[in-house]
Structures are given as structure tokens and as C-alpha cells.
Amino acid sequence: MRVGFVGAGAIARVHATQWLKLPVTLAGCYDRHLDRAEAFSAQYGGQTYASLAELLANVDLVTICTHTDGHKEAVMAAAAARVAMICEKPLARHLHDAQEMVAACEATNTPLFVAQVVRFFPAYARAKQSVAAGTIGTPGVIRTMRAGSYPAAGATFSSPFYGDFARSGGVALDLAIHDIDYHRWIAGDVERVFARGLTYRGLPNADHAYIVLRFRSGAVGHIDANWALPPGLFRTRLEIAGDQGLIEWDSFQPDPLIAAFHDPDHPGQANQSSASPLAAQDDPYFAQLAHVLACLEQKQPFLVTPHDAVMALKVSLAALESMRCGQPIELDSFQEPSP
User: Fold this and answer.
1) Is the pTM of this model over 0.85?
2) Domain locations in the chain?
3) CATH 3.30.360.10: does it fit domain 119-278+312-330?
4) CATH number of the domain at 2-115, please?
5) What are the pLDDT digits (tens) for 205-229?
6) Dihedral through CA 129, CA 135, CA 137, CA 143, nearest 10?
7) Coil, helix or strand for 178?
8) Are 323 and 225 in contact (CB under 8 A)?
9) pLDDT confidence tier of residue 231, bands split at 50, 70 and 90
């Protein structure tokens, strides 16, 4: 399979590093900045293409790694060319764009995978497996944190794009969408969204969002996403409480996953088990790409569906609107305000 890249930035290099471990051919790259595409192709292989159309004519699968506001053009072109694609998250900046993109892929029967990579992080995947197996009973509360420093110049992922709310959507869209998708994966459809944050305060380098989700199941989700940590730090936390036990994980702690269960024979105590699911081949980006490749070869559905990507975007945008107006947002009736 010939894999091409649209965009030659930091996330494209993350993808390329993992693709090199898989049985594919890196065909080359297209980027609006020709010098970036040339440097990318020199490092990872393939050739530099002068246009998106030329790239699509020479690949079997395209990985779209532009900024969010560049996704639509690439997805629509790939759908028209019937080239299977991986698109980085969020699928789009605006809901109507995402819906048009999915409709175009469906109309041409073109596979679309949106890279909600947190589903492939070992601790998160193992927690999902535990919940699905009924280990902690029925989930009632989910709490997650995703926090780092503002992606300023010098950071791995750095660009003025992140500070441009009209393009990026700030931390609630660019960062929290990871956790929103994961919460939906655990607890199902979201009914209501309420959020508070700093997004509309004009301080992008300290953007902070706190989002509360009410699910149709009755479960409640709490998401803390921020760009307020000191430079060089990044932290994630996961807690899922069910009526039979608790799953907890913290990237700052040595144990990747801890599960505690109620023990009826010893009131007031809990049994604990911990184990590391990490192994060299468990890089989540590798696992994600291997999953896509296997699904395409076997003609199986992706773990993340286009509908999942659209709904994660809708919840993120509803959180932004809740922050703006100070009110909870009912998801079924939510309409994104005109930009």
C-alpha cells in the first residue's frame, strides 16, 4: 500500500515514524510550503508533490496532517478521488463542514478514519476492556485530565495556529476532544453539556476548560483540559467509578492502571490489582495505524467511526457555547452559532 501525506508538520512526522515500522511504502508528501514537503520526503522517503491532486493520483491511502482548518479541502479531494484516508482530529473546525465531509465519503464509499488516538493508549484501552467486561459494574462517573503547557515556539507541537481561536477552537476543541471521544466510548451518547473556562478571556497561553457531560445512561463525565502547566510538563489522568469498583490511572504515578474492588468479606477494605500493559510495540500511534491497515485489508469497520468523530466535535462545540453563554447545552437541539 502506498501512503501519502498532506501536511509535513510535527504530527505528520509522528505518523511517518510509525508507518516506517509497517509493511507499506511511503509515497511522498504534499504541503503548501514546498520546502517543508521536500525536507519531509528527504527524511522519510517518497517524493514531493506539487499539488494535492498529484499526490492523490499516486497513493492508496492518504494521511491528512494539516491544521484543523485545512482538513476539509483534503478530505473532500480524497473522497472525490476515492482514496482511503486517515484524518487527524478534530475532523473539522465547524460542525457543518464535518457533516459535509462525512457525507462526501459516504457518497463515494471512501474509507475515513479520524485519529482519536487516545483509544489506542494502552491504559485507556485496558480500562475500556475492563468496563466492557463488567469488572467495575455499571459506570457512573468518569473523570479525566489532559494538561500541558501552551504549544508555544520551541515545543514539539508549536504554531501560532493554537492561539488563533477562530482556527483552532482553543483547548476545548483541540485538546479536550480526545477525552470527549473517550468518554463517549465508555458511556455512550451525551445528553447535556456544561462548561466553564478561560477560552473567551483572551489568554490563549493559559487556556483552561472544565467540561461536565451528562450521558443518556445517567452517567456523568468530568473533563479537565488545559494549557496551563509549566513548559515541558504533560499530564493525563483517568478515573472510572462503577457500582462495583473503581479504575484509576495517572501518568505521574508509577502504576499505569489500578483497579480497586469492593470486597464483601472485608467491609471497609478493597482488593487492588495493578499491572503494566506497556510494551515496546504498544506505541498508540503504531497501534492506531496498524488497526487502520488491518481494517482496510480485511474490509472491517474502524474502531473510530465518522459518526464518532462528528459527535465528539459537536460536544466540543457545545462546550464552547456553554462557556460563552454560561448555560448548559442540550445536545440534540444544539446548533453551532455562525462563526
Assistant:
1) yes
2) 2-115, 119-278+312-330
3) yes
4) 3.40.50.720
5) 789 999 999 999 999 999 999 998 8
6) -60
7) helix
8) no
9) confident
